[in-house]
Amino acid sequence: AIQTVKAHQSMPTIVEKAKIACLDFNLNKFRLQLGIQVLVDDPKNLELIRQKECNVLKDRLNKIISAGANVILTRMGIDDTASQYMNASGVLGLRR
CATH number of the domain that 39 lies in? Predict the structure, then answer.
């Protein structure tokens, strides 16, 4: 038995003909590595940077889902943005 938690409460509890992706990385918004700073001159650009962080995560999830996975298992974390996107796509996400 695998002890895991659904990433979102409204995700399905039963998946028939499951295609499972086992991941060893986080499904969190992309963050810059420690020590790297981004200087923003215009506050309007800050929202653009945040949107790009979300787009990196969505692109990563799209590649996994387009490969045919409808169940995603990960040892690491799944943040709210990823869980909402998976839920909207009908994918079951399970973490630790």
Answer: 3.50.7.10
Map residue 18 onto helix, strand or coil.
coil
- Written as six digits, the tokens of 71 are 């169940």
Our count of domains for the chain comes to 1
Q: Hey, what's the torsion of the CAs at 71, 89, 67, 4, to 10 degrees?
A: -20
Model confidence, pTM: 0.80
> CA angle, corner 59, sides to 56 and 61, nearest 5?
110
Q: Which phi and psi angles does 22 have, rounded to 5°? A: -100, 120
| Tokens 């992309």 found at | 30
pLDDT digits (tens, 9 = 90+) for 50-89: 888 889 999 999 999 999 999 999 998 899 999 999 999 9
Residue 22 belongs to what domain range?
5-95
